[in-house]
């Protein structure tokens, strides 16, 4: 059984910052890619950023220059530092990870709400 537990969401004014965290736990053999997606009301879930175990990062254009993804492999934890937040960043943010237990699967967290007020 694998769980991804997110924390760090909340309400912030435009221009402010938030840091999201997501920790993977359970019978884990190997954690490969970890990342963050978001889903705003009435929109499809979209990639924000992801990072490989080796540290290679990938960002959506909307996140470049404002968000930074990082991870701690020893803790199976991924972080998303979000700066210069805009109202259009308001969404539920989901942690995602490709994890090998007996088999390799994609796992999702329960989501954390980020609300940016103007």
Would you write up a description of this structure?
The mean pLDDT is 97. A hairpin with a 6-residue loop joins strand 4 (30-39) and strand 5 (46-51). Helices cover 0% and strands 60% of the residues. With 118 residues, it is an all-beta fold. It is globular, with a radius of gyration of 14 Å. The protein has no helices and eleven strands.
Helix content: under 10%
Q: Round the mean pLDDT to the nearest integer and report it.
A: 97
C-alpha termini separation:
40 Å
Helix/strand-derived category reads mainly beta
Figure out the total of helices.
0
Please give the radius of gyration in angstroms. Answer: 14 Å
pLDDT under 50 segments (min length 5)? none
> SSE order, as H and E?
EEEEEEEEEEE
Biggest β-sheet description: 7 strands, mixed
- DSSP E strands, number: 11
Morphology:
globular
Q: Percent of residues in beta strands?
A: over 45%
Give the structure's gist in a few sentences.
The protein has 118 residues and is mainly beta.
Explain the layout of strands and helices.
Elements (H helix, E strand, L loop, with lengths): L1 E6 L2 E4 L4 E9 L3 E10 L6 E6 L5 E3 L7 E6 L4 E6 L8 E10 L3 E5 L3 E6 L1
Entry keywords:
118 residues, mainly beta
